[in-house]
Design goal:
single chain, alpha/beta, Peroxisomal Thiolase, Chain A, domain 1, nine-stranded mixed β-sheet, 15 helices, 36% helix
Length: 412
């Protein structure tokens, strides 16, 4: 088995780009990653392309990666198209890693590109429901609503029906948040502390969609989405792309001026049909990742966690072992997850503030961790960072993610 290294990264500033396409954004970050790695496009031996909605919005199905790569003159190599909801980009990296690790390739590229903004806002929001079990959609929503009836959380009198003017995933996250509040006493203010922290981090990130700082009070008083989530606790709709080039140790020796980061662990899995008190997919895969890396949560210097809402970060900080179950909100309020704290989380601003173009988000997380481990994060640099973790979930079936990838990276 070969060791695997990240040698090139590329990413555009996430935002709303009516003049860009999935193809043009992908081309930009592929070129950036090649230049960052110091290699030519002719050196690439395999490509893995992540996208979720290009087919739905613009009818480009089936051969999305081939369309992008061939348009850039990158031909002949095998191209694998990856669709795994919000975990698509990290899955593309996992597949590239697997190919290098197995000795099939010496250098490969993973790319994620997504255009979510659409003149028809309702079309953009409704697209998210395709990341659930469509045939059993009503059953899942009703199951979540039944869970909600037994919780000791009082909803506002004007609370609207699931999916009303928002992504249905906000309702999924809101129900899970209410469950956590009912079981552990988590507060809306703790969620606001997470979102405020991420807005602070994103204000230091030139590639973030949102770069405005928000106080805890401003987050709490922002427009309500679905209780207890406010607008600034939730990831925005946006466009973006990211790319990562990986290689073997044999290929690494051929590069004159590389700044490699080693992949210590890359794990990929799907959820289970469990109840809310069963073992979470994040807990299960984190244990696997730590075992492969020969590390524990205490060894992680920074983490990028999947925070489609502030609750996502709270929950995953517990699942990754950074604090005991039920204490994710306490951890955030303590300042431990802020720059300068003991375990800085989402120094990029996270999905909430950096942005969440679904098919690109997982690689945007890797971009941030690599930038930090290289010591090139500027004002948001985690001093002395040597080990970083990225957790990226995708879709929803039952009470947890349909898919998830966790990567642990090491400074070389």
């Amino acid at each position: 088995m070969q060791d695997v290294y990240i040698i090139g990264i590329g990413m555009n500033k996430f935002g709303k780009y009516p003049g860009e396409t999935v193809r043009t954004m992908a081309e930009q970050v592929i070129q950036q990653s090649l230049e960052d790695a110091g290699i030519r496009k002719e050196d690439l031996q395999a490509g893995f392309f992540s996208n979720t909605f290009w087919g739905m919005f613009d009818k480009q199905h089936s051969i999305r990666g081939q369309v992008v790569f061939r348009g850039m003159g990158i031909d002949r190599i095998p191209v694998t198209n990856v669709e795994n909801a919000c975990a698509g980009a990290s899955t593309a990296l996992h597949l590239a890693y697997t190919g290098i690790r197995a000795g099939m390739y010496d250098v490969a590229i993973a790319v994620g590109s997504e255009k979510l903004t659409n003149p028809d806002k309702a079309k953009s929001l409704s697209a998210y429901s395709s990341c659930m079990d469509v045939e059993n959609f009503d059953k899942q929503i009703n199951t979540l609503l039944e869970y909600g009836k037994n919780l000791e959380v009082v909803l506002p009198s004007d609370e609207s029906a699931p999916g009303a003017g928002r992504s249905v995933f906000m309702d999924v996250y809101a129900m899970m948040t209410r469950w956590h509040m009912s079981k552990y006493g988590t507060t809306q203010r703790q969620l606001a502390a997470i979102a405020s922290k991420n807005h602070f981090h994103s204000s230091l990130n030139p590639k973030a969609q949102y770069q405005n700082r928000m106080s805890i009070e401003e987050v709490m008083n922002d427009s309500p989405v679905t209780y207890p989530l406010t607008r600034s606790m939730c990831a925005p709709v946006g466009d973006g792309a990211a790319a990562v080039i990986v290689c073997s140790k044999r290929f690494l020796k051929k590069i004159e001026k590389s700044r490699p980061v080693k992949i210590l662990a890359s794990v990929h899995g799907q959820g289970t049909d469990r109840d809310l008190d069963g073992e979470d997919i994040g807990e299960r895969l984190a244990k696997e990742a730590y075992e492969k890396a020969g590390l524990g949560p205490q060894d992680i210097d920074l983490a990028e966690l999947h925070d489609a809402t502030a609750y996502g970060e709270l929950h995953q900080s517990e699942a990754m072992g950074f604090c005991p179950p039920g204490e994710g909100g306490v951890l955030a309020e303590s300042g431990a997850t802020t720059l300068g704290g003991t375990i800085p989380i989402n120094t990029s601003g996270g999905l909430e503030s950096r942005g969440h173009p679904i098919g690109a988000s997982g690689l945007a997380q890797i971009y941030e961790v690599v930038t930090q481990l290289r010591g090139e994060a500027g004002n948001r640099q985690v001093i002395g960072a040597k080990i970083g973790l990225a957790e990226n979930g995708g879709g929803s079936i039952g009470v947890e993610e349909a898919a998830m990838c966790i990567h642990i990276l090491e400074k070389v």
